[in-house]
Predict the structure.
Amino acid sequence: MTLHIFNPEHDIALAYDNKYFTAPHAGRQMRHDLDYLPVLWAKDGDYILVENVNSARIHARRFMSYGQQVHFIDSDNIEQIIDEVTEVMPWGWDSAIKFQLEQLGIKANVLPTDENLSAIRELSNREYASQVLRELRELLDEDILIGESFCARNVAELTSLLEEIDKAVIKAPWSSSGRGVRYIDTMIDPAILNWANNVIKQQGSIMVEPYYNKVKDFGMEFIADKDGVHYVGLSVFHTMNGAYIGNSLEKEEVKQELLSTYITIPVLNNIAQTLETLLSKQLTGIYYGALGVDMMIVANGSRGDVGFKLHPLVEINLRRTMGHVALSLSNKKSFQHKMMRIDNDGSHYHLHILNKDR
């Protein structure tokens, strides 16, 4: 039996890399409010660790019309099923969630080793994504592709890189959606330079990318198992000020058709297949579970050209993503042609399924 946990604070936990890490209030609130989400991908007989079983049942009811074979359990009662747990699947693996599970009595043989966690963290570094981006573009050699990413290990390297890039984005190696990112127009602000210096001291480096005129966000979702990394579907998502707000719920062919306005379907398929190969090379035997690659369509107007370019790898999320949540919902006909949104009413997070005209 598999035990599932929703730990959306995972990205921040990776940055801190401390088993005693305490998530900020927003992360704890999201975990509490949406802890039932694994009901969408858990299998018959699986358990989901939640804070309040009755609350989780109420919120999950609208997604469980196909059956009640998935069970909820809280930390006070988890000892009843510990001997049955053969696998643990959190939203993402980090030292904090491993420690929390150890404290609950989960046996070591179903948890990753510290060495394995360290390897997962290194592969979650944006520097690894930069490496895969270079390899992807070299292998595909498609004129439509765009995207560069550089690593600076000190302020001198950072300022040197920025002198070569008119408009830039700098990113902490580990950070959550919308955080750990700063935009630079022509001259770097002293406050941003100070922030960058602190990031380098804490995380060892900082990433530098050209700024692109984004037209549309999307991603590709994958599953890693003992045989490698396998493509499972497109994610067409929406952001505001860099933060995720929702996903389109559609069949794969509808999402392909939507993106074909900007890029041909054969090119999309080729990228998915090439990413399977590149990611399998590094992840097989180290990481098991869901992962996603964020991409974006950008306007190709830097030299007066007309058309679009594709940035095929903005981020690698070595964890389950909201794109995977959307894929699980899109498999159900009643949710297709709708929009999945995560909203905060000021005190709580909610998952809404809305008509697309809203």
In short: The longest helix spans residues 265-283. The mean pLDDT is 92. The CA atoms of residues 340 and 353 lie 5 Å apart.
